[in-house]
Amino acid sequence: MRVEAERLAKLSEAERNVRFWPVELDEPGLVLGLPPATPNPQQGSGLPFGAAAETRAYALVGPQATMTGLAERFLETVIVPLTAKLPADSPFKAVPDRSSLARALAQVCATTVSAQERYVLEWRTGTLFPLPMQRSATGWLVFLDKIQQVPAGNLLVPDPTTVPAGDLVGPTAITPMPDPKREAQPEPPSALTAQVTALIGGKTPEQAATALAHDLLDNPYATCLRVVEALIQLEAHAAADGRKFAAAMVAAMLPPQLSALAATTGGNAVLRRCWARLTSADPMFEPASQALDLVVRTPAQGTTRREYFTPQQRRPAVVPIEPPLTKDQTTVKGHVVGGVALGRRQTYGWTDAFWPGPFAPGVVAVRVFDTAHGAGVPWPTGARPDLIAARRHVVATIGPIEGQIDAVRLADTALLSIGTQQWSFHVDNEGTVLLEHFRRRAPDHYDVFFGMYDLGLAVCDATGRISADEPAVSSQPDREVPADAVRVANPHAFTAGAANAARDYYPTFVTMVQARPDGDPLVLDAPTGKDRRDTPRFDFFGWARSGSKGIGSPVWAARCTIALQSSQALQESELAVAAFRFTRVLDDERVWAADWTTGTPTVKDRKPFKPPVSGLGGAPRAGLTGLRVAGVCPEAGHTVSQLFPSQYGAALLLDAHINAPKHQKAAIMRAWQRTVDAFLAEATAQLTAETGQAPTADQALSRAGTLIHVGATEQLSEPFLRRFAVSYASLRGYEESGSRIAPFPDRSFALGFEHDLHLSPLTGTFTGWV
Fold it and tell me: Which of 103, 317, 531, 745 is deepest in the core (most CB within 10 A)?
């Protein structure tokens, strides 16, 4: 009666939220059987239940799953079909109720790692829970005797028959303690660093690997970042220690266990980083290669060992999985806003303002992070402290307007935007540049958070073409340019033909490449038109088509959030690349200054400004030519650094360059013309009042020159700069064509009324220009 009652009272989808591996147990044609009474090579190896040399079946635990829910699914897919085929007199004919089965499963979940038997100790999201099943030559052997003869022993904590699996949170996968009175702050990466430092202290690399291997097999998602951090710390102490740790980590498990790990994103990330330390001469090289199912480059011949393509050169055959999510855990009001990465679940807001999709403004405050860690960022060699401090202050002040450190958005035609400056991936000089700086500085972190998902990068020229030396273009000759052309296009990344050290590595153009299983990585060109739907990056980031729009997916949002919250190296790269945008502005100025008189300084549907006669000019020349009033200003004109010498002015320009860098030349031209016109009108009014008659054009121009400059110097006056900043603030929100850029009015309000107390309008308060 109890079995029948339980059948009628079926558990919820969340309680049953587990995924079976390596096969779903309800797949058609799945062969189930009992183990032979004696070893039979035709049916299996005959090894005892739990032997590590056998391929074990596992249940991958999802959020809110219970052991009772697992038992219910195991009953439905394994025990009931199997027992139905047994003869009536079989001692295994009886079907247990799900509650009894749940407790039995919890007491036989032992595995052997490093020759030591160990029970699964925690029931959490991402737990790789071993089942009483092993693969045989003809199917799967189910050890029903182990379920029916359960000794008193292991019970997990908390009791998983009643307590659902909790989420993994933060780099150390802590159990969150919700506080309804305040917004939860993510665990800082420094917590992981401190935890691992204490864990490996006093241990040899081999001892540290053995200790972590047990936890890794229990829950690869909860443990993966801990293992990678241990690898990084040990290697920082001695390169050989990193290699020893990697080899010992692989050696701690037998091939079936390595395969189980490689099937999960957490375990796959660890094995990729361990494999990268090994060579074909290392005994553990081949087991790691086989577990990852790497693509063979050259087969073994005689004494020559087999060689493999790196995972970045060829996509491995194994596609790692995440813990399962139920429909209710991914969907809110019909919108798919839930995703999971490295076992850590994320839920986003939804917006239909542009293209519909998920977004999160972030909770890791730029100012807080900069105060705690900004001084420790590896800033460019020789950079003046006052220059860095000035840039950091402006970056941190406008951060809340742009987004926090962990901001993510897949809800407009930029496809994907991340971080405090909304670095986007629809172009080759924003998001890809940030990640390339990060990859150069922290290759392990880059591979864990981005490379594992086949996202590769390649420095390119302004048109997206890659050096002929890059393997990504060996089968795409139309994408090749000489290596020198790429270096010239990236002057802040290369010196004398060689890539700069990580702290001085600031590429200008970086394109995306995607690893493939059967060929060199494929270049994913940046979209060239307004319709982004038929472009490779649209598909790569998981967008779906909906009429004339796209619908964003939370999959890449989750991957980015976990990276932005868990990697201090990425957070520091954000600060470094954000501050470097001022250098990018100066680089852009060199292009603008080729001829300031070109462009369209008008605003659609409004009275056009005067043609650029009095306010703009100066013959183009090889040197930097600024804006000038002919006959009044110095021949070289006034440069961007002279026009934006205050904290407030610099913040206005940086904020606009983040959102519309292509339109800032026209915006500066409009603001200059408008300000000059105002001072010409003021000069005319003054002279008219003084003489009683209208001045000549030359007289008005001469008087305007004294108002525009400080005395007889070439320095722009404070009144002129204040008026210029006001004009620029009102005009920066228009495209070069004159069309209005929708977000800018709100941004100007926020900058002018919410954050201006931190930004001085006085000349000379910003020292961040070179």
Answer: 103
Residue range 412-465, pLDDT digits in tens: 889 999 999 999 999 999 999 999 999 999 999 999 999 999 999 999 999 999
Residue labelled with tokens 């800032």? 664
Please tell me the total number of residues recorded for the chain in this structure: 770
The pair of three-digit structure tokens given for residue 263, joined into one six-digit string: 């099937």
Q: Using alpha carbons only, how large is the chain's radius of gyration in Å? A: 32
Find all residues with CB under 8 Å of 613, minimum gap 6, and list them.
none
Q: What is the pTM of this model?
A: 0.92
Tokens of 176: 């969150």
Cα–Cα distance between 498 and 602 in angstroms, integer? 44
CB distance 647 to 766 below 8 Å: yes
Given a contact cutoff of 8 angstroms between Cβ atoms, the answer to whether 311 and 515 are in contact is yes
Residue 596, token pair as written in the block: 């300031």
Give the relative orientation of helices 385-402 and 744-753 as an angle to the nearest 10 degrees. Answer: 120
According to the model, what pLDDT value does residue 611 have? 36
DSSP characters over 539-554: HHTT-EEETTEEE--H
Confidence of residue 642 (pLDDT cuts 50, 70, 90): very high
- Per residue in 31-89, pLDDT (tens digit) is 888 887 644 434 444 445 655 567 889 999 999 999 999 999 999 999 999 999 999 98
- Place 607 in a pLDDT band, splitting at 50, 70 and 90: very low
Of 82-86, 275-279, 291-295, 404-408, which range is least confident?
Answer: 82-86
Q: Which residues contact 466 (CB under 8 A, 6 or more apart)?
A: 458, 459, 460, 472, 473, 479, 480, 481, 486, 511, 513, 523
Chain centroid to Cα 599, Å, comes to 37
Instruction: Determine the Cα–Cα distance for residues 166 and 124; give it in Å rounded to an integer.
Output: 5
Nearest CA among 431, 436, 432 for reference residue 420: 431
Q: Would you state the pLDDT for residue 748?
A: 64
Q: How deeply is 512 buried, as exposed, middle or buried, from its count of CB atoms within 10 A (0-12, 13-18, 19+)?
A: buried
Closest CA to 282 of 318, 257, 248, 231: 248
CA angle 164, 166, 168 (to 5 degrees): 160
Count of beta carbons in the 10 Å neighbourhood of residue 544: 15
